Amino acid sequence: MLKLVLAVWVGLASISVWAGPQREEHLADSVRTALSVAVSGLPPPEPYLPTAADRKAYGAWLQTQQQRLSARLVQLHGATGLPELATLESQRLFLQTVWYESHRAALDPSLVLGMAEVESGFRKFAISSAGAMGVMQVMPFWPRLLGQGDASMLFQWQANVRFACVILRHYIKLEDGDLAMALGRYNGSRGQTAYPQAVLAAQQRWQP
């Protein structure tokens, strides 16, 4: 694991990521327990599609977003793209995870995709100067705080996206539904406008 982390640091030395110096906050025991339950257990991210109409809508969403993702990866990273999203299957699995986890947290998938774009450029192994990890740039104190074990789990697509969605939903509640303030809090820049504006602008690219 140490070799992997060192390799990631070397490989990402010149990469700019948005995660700010988010500080660990005190959580009431009841809140910590609720958040811990929310991030625990990672069944396969299979969408719940009970009707033919649901399946058709999801299929159309997935096709559209995969085309957008492929194009955006070339724009962000050149023709070589990213190794972790180099195949159509890997892109499909990532998008399926985003869809599943965002709906699980009652968030718009386009918002989560916008965050992933701004936070890391969709890099699965990104690490910021503040120590935030993975595609959604989750701070490594969160697994420890919620009793979820080794922070290296944040290099997994589903674990990272789930933590991010649960944390953002928690912040939206703390900010009484103010999404801009919640995004700033997620980024460690609460009250500043640059990060929320960047995410909301990126979200427009992922709207159905």
Structural description of this entry:
Helices cover 58% and strands 0% of the residues. It is globular. It has a single domain, classed as Lysozyme. By secondary structure, the protein is mainly alpha-helical. Mean pLDDT is 88; it is low at 1-15. The N and C termini lie far apart (39 Å).
Which ranges are low-confidence, i.e. pLDDT below 50, for 5 or more consecutive residues? 1-15
Radius of gyration from the CA trace? 16 Å
Mean pLDDT across the residues is 88
In which range does the helix fraction lie?
Answer: 55-70%
What kind of sheet is the major sheet? none
Strand content: under 5%
How many domain regions?
Answer: 1
Tell me the CATH architecture. Orthogonal Bundle
How many strand units? 0
CATH fold topology: Lysozyme
Q: Assign an overall shape.
A: globular
From N to C, what is the helix and strand string?
Answer: HHHHHHHHH
Question: What is the fold's blueprint, element by element?
Answer:
Layout: H1 2-11, H2 29-39, H3 52-77, H4 88-104, H5 109-120, H6 141-145, H7 157-174, H8 179-187, H9 194-205
